[in-house]
Task: structure prediction
Amino acid sequence: MRNVDEDTITQIVLARHAEARNPRLKQIMTSVVQHLHAFARDVELTEEEWFAGIQFLTDVGHITDDKRQEFILLSDTLGLSMLVTALNNRKPVGCTESTVFGPFFVENAPEYENGDDVANGAKGEPCFVTGRVTGLAGEPVPNAHIEVWQADSDGFYDVQYEDATQSQGRGALKSLADGTFHFRSITAESYPIPHDGPVGRMLKALGRHPWRPAHLHFMIDAPGYERLITHVFRSGDEYLDSDAVFGVRSSLIANWQRHETGNAPDGTQIDTPFSTLDFTFVLNRADGAGNRRA
Ligand code: BEZ
Ligand code: FE
Result:
């Protein structure tokens, strides 16, 4: 094909995909090409702007390594991650809503018993978390595998420290026979997502801040139920309505009760300020019966 021009190029590119053997790949790439071309036409993209975009994506690639995933950060800050989460986690009303996974989950976190301190030395005010895992009918879900992870009071996850030698502020535990679980950790605080790279520069240029409201991450797996990936957000946080990655759902906001001193739920006497949090997680059945369009 010769003499391709601005009016014919989209259909000509798509025609080249005619022999694609994977129908899903063909569908996705057809849509990608159509939307990319429509975008360039829409904004009348200049050559300088096209090259600035290429340079930006190159920078995103250069800063990405096994510890820093700038492409996920880009997807998160453009709302793509939350959109994909919403599209793939339609659930019956009453189930705990899902939210973004984020880049700081780590496989094989240490296993803890109920009552243990998952902070493991992470900086922050003590927090005692109690919770319950149920199904939609209120049935307790025993032996659920619960992964929890969070940032310290300086706003960093353990894996963000160059010299980290052990897991801090993360761990795995099981729900008990009545579906309950409890552990000690530290009080979640709001923190900025990594913004010293190209995504941070993009946010700044767009007049956006990089902050996330205080939250605890949970991933819960139990036989017969869908995996739940979510957060619990701290009520009153100033960033609840402007989360840099659009992850807040009203149903996930909980009250972190603050105590000056006193008896913690596990009976220990705490002489410094601490907080308590209680949250019930309602899992969707694995057969997906009753899943709704969001
Ligand atoms: C997080 O909550 O850990 C997170 C989510 C998206 C981007 C950066 C951090
Ligand atoms: Fe987080």
User: Anything to note?
Assistant: The chain has a mean pLDDT of 95. The CA atoms of residues 77 and 245 lie 5 Å apart. The helical segments are 9-15, 23-43, 47-63, 70-77, 80-88, 198-205. Residues 73, 76, 100, 102-104, 193, 212, 245 surround benzoic acid (ligand 1) (CB under 6 Å).
